[in-house]
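Exercise 7. Predict the joint structure of the components listed below.
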Amino acid sequence: MHKIAVIPGDGTGPEVVREGLKVLEAASKKFKFQYETKEFDFSGKRYLETGKMVDDKDVEELKKYSAIYLGAVGDPDVKPGIIETGVLLKLRFALDQYINLRPVKLYSPDFCPLKDKNPEDIDFVVVRENSEGLYKGMGEFKDKGTKEEVAIQISYNTRKGVERCIRYAFEYTRKRNKRKKLTLCGKTNVLTYAWNLWERVFYEVAKEYPDITVDYAHVDATTMWFVKNPEWFDVIVTDNIFGDIITDLGAMIQGGMGIAAGGNINPEGVSMFEPIGGSAPKYTGKNIINPLAAICAAGMMLDNLGQAEAAQAIENSVIKVATQKLKTLAAGKMGYSTGEVGDLVVENIQK
Ligand code: IPM
Ligand code: MN
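Solution:
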């Protein structure tokens, strides 16, 4: 029995999660697996009403689950940063979800803003370190508010943290078994402490994986290659902030936030799956947001729970709906409502 904690969250989160759960139900019937869900209200609204976010007791409770399914966090009525740190980052850190796995896969040339790029050209995965780096929140102000003010923000990289991420990326590249190429994306030429460590560990671990081709690209060049030659990439491993930045660009070249999903993975613990776009406040409650990213996140979750066949069926259905039914992947322009898109995905799975 898979126990799934559901966090609909803010904005359009609840709308897209609803569709993901519809698809989950259809998949469980078709592929005969049992699951139960429990909803957790960690949202901007609850914060405004009660001042509460995710506390240590919540974390202990969530540890009892097989996986977490998250909609979105971010409420325009709450100062930016509060919910993000108090809910999303809190969960990632407290549950030690040290990998953020973000596939970038183009399903149809129609979805790609780049000229002459086809699905075979854009099919890679970013392995983003998810527990350290600049996200550690380390730093300080000196002489705050004065003309002499200094703000220091530290990128914190431990040997253990870097190594476990890099090892995961090598294992993942091997298991993915596509081009068997792993690219380290960094900034060794300027950030000479952090990226020196990353580079050393990367090439050291690489020796254990002679079947994997290794490569290195500076982060700025990586963004250039995403646009110019995305076909060069198979798996990319990078730190927290670079991974954050390049995966938004990755999402755009695969067709936008409507389709991009990711997993916050703790290979030894509880992982959390989410569409990577935000809470899209301007579309909230209109039934026009694209739920495919959330549905893909549900598929990734099932894969992580060992339901590979169901996960594949969900992806196949998403591809069919995206390429054969929707006019575009953009909210409000799909030609179908949020709920209808969910129903279309369900129909294919039931067939
Ligand atoms: C993401 C988001 C988060 C991040 C924010 C909401 C804290 O942008 O998941 O990529 O920066 O990691
Ligand atoms: Mn981001």
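Discussion. The two ends are 24 Å apart (CA to CA).
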